[in-house]
Q: What sequence folds into this?
């Protein structure tokens, strides 16, 4: 029997944007022990739809959205949702470019876990102040403007080299953190400086509490981007 888990998730749009303009998505399914975060790329077409499709497929359907056959089906679902009659010409022109997103998904089974990711949405496994695993990026200087992304374009499958897989075992009291790039980079910067991850789990009690944490973090140098986190406590 696995350890009892508790998950908290919050998301905040870019400064100056409203919630409906947030292109990140997060999904938790305690029953299956699956948790996911995706960061839609602003330069792509309808990224918020694509990021939501990815996380829901992983958590609620229990499938791997990066598997080629599943990815093909999800791409068709994205197209069906976005290619609506009556779209303005500029929206129609952008759709063939496709949507794109970074993705990270965590699966827990018993006292073991697996994590799979593409891009710069990151996963951290903490035991007290010690970071046992971080990825796909484990240093702040590895973040760039051009991360590998999961695309809706046919034939643009995430290659094996682009997919990061991790896993291991966990104990009572361990913490898992899934975060989109702005927060992930900020957390790594703090860890590299102090040897401790910022206590983001202390700020997830309400949307306002997380929004205040994000505002203070941006004032201290965190990038102004859609910011999403899922913290799983064991």
A:
């Amino acid at each position: 029997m696995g350890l009892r888990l508790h998950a908290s998730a919050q998301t905040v749009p870019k400064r100056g944007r409203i919630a409906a303009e947030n292109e990140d998505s997060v999904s938790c399914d305690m029953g299956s022990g699956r948790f996911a975060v995706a960061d839609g790329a602003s330069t792509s077409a309808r990224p918020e739809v694509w990021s939501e499709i990815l996380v829901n497929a992983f958590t609620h359907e229990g499938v791997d959205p990066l598997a080629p056959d599943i990815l093909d089906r999800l791409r068709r679902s994205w197209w069906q949702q976005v290619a609506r009659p009556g779209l303005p010409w500029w929206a129609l022109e952008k759709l063939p470019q496709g949507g794109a997103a970074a993705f990270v998904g965590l699966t827990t089974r018993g006292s073991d876990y697996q994590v799979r990711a593409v891009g710069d949405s990151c996963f951290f496994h903490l035991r007290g102040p010690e970071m046992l695993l971080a990825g796909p990026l484990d240093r702040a200087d590895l973040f760039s403007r051009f991360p590998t992304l999961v695309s809706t374009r046919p034939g643009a499958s995430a290659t094996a080299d682009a997919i990061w897989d991790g896993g291991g075992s966990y104990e009572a009291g361990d913490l898992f953190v899934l975060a989109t790039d702005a927060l992930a980079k900020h957390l790594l910067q703090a860890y590299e400086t102090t040897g401790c991850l910022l206590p983001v789990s202390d700020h997830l009690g309400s949307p306002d509490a997380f929004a205040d944490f994000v505002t203070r973090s941006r004032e201290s140098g965190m990038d102004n981007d859609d910011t999403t986190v899922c913290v799983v406590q064991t």
Remarks:
- The radius of gyration is 17 Å.
- Helices lie at 47-59, 68-82, 89-94, 181-194, 207-219.
- The first strand starts at residue 6 and ends at 12.
- The CA atoms of residues 87 and 93 lie 10 Å apart.
